[in-house]
Amino acid sequence: MSAREEITVVARWQPAPGAMNDVLSILAELGPKSRAEAGCLGYEVFQGQGDAGQLLLIERYRDAAALDAHKQSAHYQELVVKRAIPLLANRKVELLRALDPA
Hints:
CATH class: Alpha Beta
Distance between the termini: 5 Å
Number of strands: 4
Number of helices: 3
Order of helices and strands: EHEEHHE
Oligomer: single chain
Helix content: 25-40%
Largest sheet: 4 strands, antiparallel
Shape: globular
Strand content: 35-45%
C-alpha cells in the first residue's frame, strides 16, 4: 500500500455549556476563509443528531505543507486559537492519510 500526500483532519469539538452559538458563529466565519486557501480540498462541519453538543469538523488538505499553512494563517490563529478554543470543553484532533490499496 502506498500513502497519498493528502491529509484529512477529523476534529471533534465540544463547546462549553452555553457556548454553542458563539462557536457556530466562529465556524461560519472560518469555513469560507479556510475553503479559499490554495491547499484546502474540503472543509465541512457536522453537528451530532443524538448529541447536539458535539461538533465534527472534517477538513482535507493537499499535503502537510498546506495543513501547516492553514494552521499558521491569520484567520486560524484569530478564529480558532484565540476565539474558539477557549470556548471548548473538549477538543480532539486526528490527522489521517489515505492509503491506496495495492
